[in-house]
Predict the structure of Dicarboxylate/amino acid:cation symporter.
Amino acid sequence: MSHTDTLEEKAQATLAKIPRKKRIITVSLYCICIVLGLIFGYMGNTAIDELMTFIATVFTRLFSFIAVPIIALALISTLAKLGKNSGSGRIFTHAVFYTLSTTIVAAVVGAIMFWTLQPANVPAEVMGMSTVEPVQPTSYYDHILTVIPNNILQPFVAGNVLSVLLIAAAIGIALAVMPHNERRDAVLNTFLGLQDILFLLIKWLLAILPIGIMAFIAQLIAQLGQGVILGSLATYFTVVIGSNLIQMFIIIPLFLLARGLNPLRIARGMLPALAVAFFSKSSAGTLPVTMAAAENNCHVNPKIARFVLPICTTINMNGCAGFILITSLYLMQNAGIEINLTTTIVWIFIATIAAVGNAGVPMGCYFLTISLLSSMNIPVLLMGVILPVYAVIDMVETGVNVWSDSAVANMVNKDLAADLKKEEAAEAV
């Protein structure tokens, strides 16, 4: 008997070692590709730079190809399956609560950093070097109109995530309230089948992801070698990056700890998504990897992951909130507008609302800030001077956004996963 137990224990130990070996191989492969990316980027070889740019572009296109349909299918299938009597309302409420909480705190941290370091104005002659083209003023009504689709295909073709979410939510809710019959089940099964196909494509993409990371790093190093950060922007740059790093390494971990979650364990599980976010500069494009990492590595309930993460990709923009607030105050200060405590408090809320409405695409915060300030008749020529340093800012912002998305999904899972399992068990009986 003891001998049999020993054999069983050995077998279990052997099985337990397989995932560990797989993780070691995966981490080693990532490290090798990161080192290769650094080497290729520093070489400055034109042919290699072109190859790395090509590979990075291929991966960016693949992420974009999968991101929009996975957002729609995840939201449709989750809403449809949750139905009227399930926890869909609770999931949404918890997700929005954590999203608004973290986003407001991010804006507050940005305001504190701005007041503490007080970045100096850019010299007028430097602002004259700006090459940004004038932007037509747009109001919030115009922003709302861009969300409301007039063609069911156009939002998917244009990658308008907010419109896609609106269409998907409408279809998902309609399926949830429809009478359960063969036609309703056939439509839902079609969506579920398409979702399974996309998750298989994501699995294949993750298998070759280290190659993409290598190309992204090489491309970044080459770009940094060609760019110059203006000395007059050093403090502004420090304020933006510093506020994002505080949000990433202090604020979000504190939220997780307050919910009884281990930030290091979650960060380790979400590392593939964070790496892709950092180098791709697109939280929407990173969504497939974020969902896979949350479900497979952090064991987030699929119902929660596939409902919360697509929503968070659009409305949970911690990094963007800090950037909008700091940049807006900085441009207003350079335009001669007095920045006082009241102005800062008002802009905390403006930045939070604007960040919630921002799309998770590369440079989304940059263009949103230009539109926002132009609509308020604030000069935006300085955005052209900020542009050379924005590539690095955008990378850090996207990493913060995806890290916050991951935290929200894990916190909602902590709150509701047990209740969802009980509901599933009750439905099975």
Remarks:
- Residues 382-428 form the longest helix (47 residues).
